[in-house]
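Example (one chain per record):
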Amino acid sequence: MNILSPFTALCSVGFFARLSYALARSPVLPLFALYLGAGPEAIGFAVGISTVTGIFFKLPSGAISDVIGRKRTMLVGLFVFAVMPFTYLLVKDYQALIVIRFIHGLATAIYGPVSMAVVADIAGGKKGEMLSWFSSVTIIGNLLGAPLGGFILNSANNGHPVLSDFHNAYLISGFAGMMSLLLGIGVLKGQNSTGEARTLKEIYGRFVSGIKEVIRDKRVLITSNMEGLQNMTVGALEAFLPIYAVKVAGLNEFQAGLLWGVQVVITILSKPLMGRISDRYGRKPLITAGMILCALSFGAVPLLRDFYLLAFAAVLFGLGEAFVTSSSAALVADICKEKHFGTAMGTFGTLFDIGHASGPILAGLLIARFDYLYSFWIMAAILLLSVPVFITGVKANTA
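Predicted structure:
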């Protein structure tokens, strides 16, 4: 019970934070950019700029939390979640939107790795299970945010939103962000707010040494890259599975949406169980099996046209994703010293974001050069080739 209460509160914080961020992102953000007169390339840049923020700031944010304490760092992230949605009310042009999106990206860049480090701090021997539960709850927040934003815009002015409708969406996003901040203040008030280092020189020294210690450990980098590569195929499916389903397989838009929804739901439902299994029987077998399962199901997609067969491939991919994601972050935490959990999760999050951002780009380049079959097979081969590197590079005593 000493773990359950703060952990449940952390899950609630994560739910409202991710709900707020997702509501501000899709479909509200691209439609807002379109309303401001942005073209396709500019809209894509507006959507992707916050991921760039994560690539640059997740590692230093996690490292800072190791030095000055989780409470201070996490509250900074929650403060960004709470405040930034309201700044969209001031946006009058595309340039201002880009600046605000980049700053808003600091919310997940700071909060993401630090919240995972907090969970790892309290999880003890249940890191796989508890990190998986935490991740599943935050994914639910993400899933609810998008349709809520769409409902707000679609229910106004017969589906033709005006500026005030976008403002309403961002106001609700801000309310959810404020809820996450208030809950965060409550759950973190009993935690130690400072690290051991007191002077600026000591703080900087611990910050640098923590980063060096983590990034020099090839086991951390290899394990983090497993989820990064797996997330590369997630990003590719997110971008191109709907297009493939409609344009190639001849399915309708609703069926295309169901395919993606099936994969996400399977991942959410499976992760906690897979996390518990990884706690009991080891991380490496699940990560290995998950990478293989993702590669095979991903490579099978361009061979299929039938909705039910594609749905079965989506189920297998969702299971493979659950295998990998339930164990990779926990394995990184197992490898690292407790004082460097934040830095480790920052490294993990950075490679995760790089993988997610590169997936649609790589898939798009390959599809433009070849076709879906060879493009998907090339990316599936990358996953399969990473498996022996992981097996040999991460020793058994860390699994």
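Caption: The first helix runs from residue 4 to 25.
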